[in-house]
Amino acid sequence: MKLMNMGLFLHVAGFVVCCGMMLHCAADSKVHYHEFHLTESNFTRLCSTKTMLTVNESFPGPVIRVRKGDTIYVNIHNQGSYGVTIHWHGVKNPRNPWGDGPEYITQCPIPPGTNFTQEVIFTTEEGTLWWHAHSDWTRATVHGAIVVLPALGTTYPFPQPDAEEIIVLASWYKHDVMELMTETLSRGGTANLSDAFTINGQPGDLYPCSKETTYRLMVDYGKTYLLRIVNAAQNQDFFFMIAEHNVTVVGGDASYFKPLTTPYIMITPGETMDVLVTADQPLGEYYIVATPYFDGGADDYDHSTATAIFEYRGNYTHPSTPSFPYHIPAYNDTVVASLFTNQIRSLASPEHPVDVPLDVTTRMYLVVTMNMLPCPNDSCAGPDGYRIAAGLNNKTFENPKVDILQAYYWNLSGFYEPNFPDQPLHYFNFTSDDLLSNNVTVSDPGTRVKVLNYNETVEIVFQGTDVMNSAENHPIHLHGYKFYVVGRGQGIFNNVTDPKNYNLYDPPELNTIPIPKDGWATIRFKASNPGVWFMHCHFDRHMSWGMDTAFIVKSGGTAETSMKGPPAYMPPCDLESFLGSKDSMLLREDR
Ligand SMILES: [Cu+2]
């Protein structure tokens, strides 16, 4: 088996940092090397033990720490029993989609018993990001935080906190997640619910057999802590609160925000949030809670709540039960959830300016739907024996057999079609509650991508719908970019009146945005990162059901504006896929 090629290391030796348009990084940027060993090992939660895949036997996985502008090389050794890929969530990785990781988009899975080194290039990101498996539903157990500190010689745009803490929120399943997925997708019905949520790997006091291991954040009175919160849950938005303490949100998705002080945050899968909390309450123990925000109607959700403890050091009588937040929003309070999301603003300061595209050259209107697809003999577990699907503009994305990036780079035909539509074929009352007829519910499966010229300025309006009575928030995530969220609202987007209220002054710059239930959101970005970049709902079940597409961003005609070439070794795609293809360049064992 061919392993790492030395050419890559030679390449590293001659590495020249490319800082894009940002200053102050070239001189101090560093290159770091990491080894990720993916292995199956035993973990016990909720009184039951299971074997699960993790990186370096930790859950959550190891933390990657870099400074702004650094580059990392991560050698991923797959010692598990199925193919896996790793994605660097929120890292733009300019010109280098080869290191991005979503399976069948930028690479084929890393086969068991082999390794693959990814180059991950940090540029403008500063704050908290995360990495996770991007193959099937493996990310349930394969994920960890990325801390991007300010470049040397620069500081946070807020007072230096006394200490920092990473808080990773996740889902826990008693059963093997890959088996659950296989079963869900073969039945074609709804997905199994998680059995618990976790904070830094622990469910907390409200679950059986969990009290002894509840995560404790030890604090000193008077000190301020920076919490780097990651929502790594499979399918769940959370309200996150600390009893009797407000938090001040100062950043998210590795961007800075205007400080926003609030008793709660709503965080959606894929998002990160950096919040400050000052230990200014009477010495005691206070619950940290991550409790579901669920605004859907069609499927159920895990009603449980994860807790950790915000515990003051010092001499005092410890309570038998920590103080619990008494104003948790109702689980389905869309108003409160949107109120929070809509208040987030970019810092928009001289040190952290915004650069919102003003002249839009490509406009897309993407209707976000749950769908269904016919099933042989109507034998599936969805409505009328159909299988549950999902889509954008009624197109249900299907993974190709060879990843889109290699198919594009090597000019292999037959793996994708460059005809993803900019608009829905039919306009209808998207938020009506009677959208059950087959002409709106049945989608059109395929592997369709949208091709963009270099530096096009793109505006996408995402329109939430109630097709199949399945309106709910959808966290849409775009790889390879950060985008500005210039507008967000309820109901059907009005292309005359709503743009008048766009925020072009200080919109947040994010990589994941919750599209409100029965509402819309508008993003803008400049297509200045050539490559192949996935865009999908960050609820894993919706991603697997096809609420996805990919962008091919063409190169700009010069070396600096062109996609890099592939690394010397990429994980091989399934041999069968190449039958009939004369081009064997992908099977580059001999190169
Ligand atoms: Cu979704």
TrEMBL record:
Q: What is its EC number?
A: 1.10.3.2
UniProt keyword annotation of Metal-binding present: yes
What are the UniProt keywords, alphabetically?
Apoplast, Copper, Glycoprotein, Lignin degradation, Metal-binding, Oxidoreductase, Repeat, Secreted, Signal
State the signal peptide span: 1-18
Q: Which reaction does it catalyse?
A: 4 hydroquinone + O2 = 4 benzosemiquinone + 2 H2O
**Where does the record place the Plastocyanin-like domain?**
39-150, 166-315, 423-555
What InterPro entries does this protein's entry cite? Cu-oxidase-like_N, Cu-oxidase_2nd, Cu-oxidase_C, Cu-oxidase_fam, Cu_oxidase_CS, Cu_oxidase_Cu_BS, Cupredoxin, CuRO_1_LCC
Which cofactor(s) does the record list? Cu cation
Keyword Secreted among record annotations: yes
Question: Which subcellular locations apply to this protein?
Answer: Secreted, Extracellular space, Apoplast
Taxonomically, the superkingdom here is Eukaryota
Cofactor: how and how many bound: Binds 4 Cu cations per monomer.
Q: Which family does it belong to?
A: Belongs to the multicopper oxidase family.
**What is this protein's function?**
Lignin degradation and detoxification of lignin-derived products.
Q: What is this protein called?
A: Laccase
Source species, please? Vitis vinifera
Give the organism's phylogenetic lineage: Eukaryota, Viridiplantae, Streptophyta, Embryophyta, Tracheophyta
